[in-house]
Amino acid sequence: AGASAVLIFNTGLPGEEGVVAGTLGEPGTVTVPVVGLSHAAGTALLAGGEVTVTAQTVSESRQSFNVVVETGTGDPGNSVMVGAHLDSVPEGAGINDNGSGSAAILAIAEALAGTETTNTVRFAWWGAEEFGLRGSQHYVEDLRANDPGSLENIALYLNFDMIGSPNHGRFVYDGDHSAFPPVQGPEGPVTAPEGSAAIEAAFHEHFGSVGLASGETEFSGRSDYGPFIAEGIPSGGLFTGAEGIKTVEQAALFGGRAGVAYDFCYHAACDDLANVDVRGLEEMTDAAAAVVSRFAASTQDVDG
Ligand code: PHE
Ligand code: ZN
Ligand code: ZN
Ligand code: ZN
């Protein structure tokens, strides 16, 4: 609110555009000086004058989609769910956030095609995560309302949101600690579902086995696993960092630059193809694939 802004205005008539400097940021009306004009014509009359600018809050509603597919084989009573959000913020293409996770789970689905898993594997590409986890929330609420038994059939949920950050860390969701800040479930605040610790351990075990350092990141519900842990479904996942700043210790562990954001282009127009560290994304995709295969074969570590 109250931020100073430069506004390019355009009346829609040829030549009717110019530049004003003023304070905007909230709905309302301000009168501001005209500081420059790009065309003469009618607007030339405004040079050195003032214009009144009105900012309004506009809302729109639009439809979004979840795309869900499931293996044709395996125990449907013990399903391993794997998800990534397919939408981005309007500011940019969202290639790291979250083309990276979406591509990773697509690669895993392709690799599974034609194989037979012990458990069913169900993939979800979520819509509208950036508008408040809307897609995953809808999915879980819909099952709760219409087919509660099918929630019981989900043994665990694995989430991949931002796994190709240019200045990446190799972070695993911290499933052996309480979700913080607490996630609200139907019966009040929830803590990390018990099996989440085993999922975290499975990721660290994979990284250890290939000689890569791994760290931990908040298990706060700030992505599509939130609605699942709110239902008590053990969950986990990977993350290479967003707007946070890489520490000196993390740079020693993972490489990259200390004092710089993991993803400088987080939620920005520059989150384009050049914003992904391909090698990092491959390491994270391999880890995701290894953990999906492990639980597709057995979820005993998670549910005892
Ligand atoms: N969900 C966040 C987004 O899409 C990214 C994020 C994931 C941030 C996990 C923190 C932890 O913008
Ligand atoms: Zn985002
Ligand atoms: Zn995201
Ligand atoms: Zn931990």
Walk me through the structure.
The chain has 304 residues and is an alpha/beta fold. The protein folds into 2 domains: 4-55, no CATH class; 67-303, 3-Layer(aba) Sandwich (Aminopeptidase), CATH 3.40.630. The chain has 8 helices and 13 strands. The protein has helices at residues 95-112, 134-146, 148-152, 196-209, 226-230, 248-254, 278-297, 300-303; strands at residues 4-10, 17-23, 28-37, 50-55, 67-70, 75-85, 119-126, 154-160, 171-173, 183-185, 188-190, 215-217, 235-239. The strands form 3 sheets. A 7-stranded mixed β-sheet has the order 5-7-6-8-13-9-12. The chain has a 4-stranded antiparallel β-sheet with strand order 1-2-3-4, with no helix packed on it. It has a two-stranded antiparallel sheet with strand order 10-11. A hairpin with a 2-residue loop joins strand 10 and strand 11. The radius of gyration is 24 Å and the shape is globular. The model is unreliable at 40-44 (pLDDT under 50). The structure holds phenylalanine and zinc ion (3 copies). One zinc ion (ZN) binds next to loops.
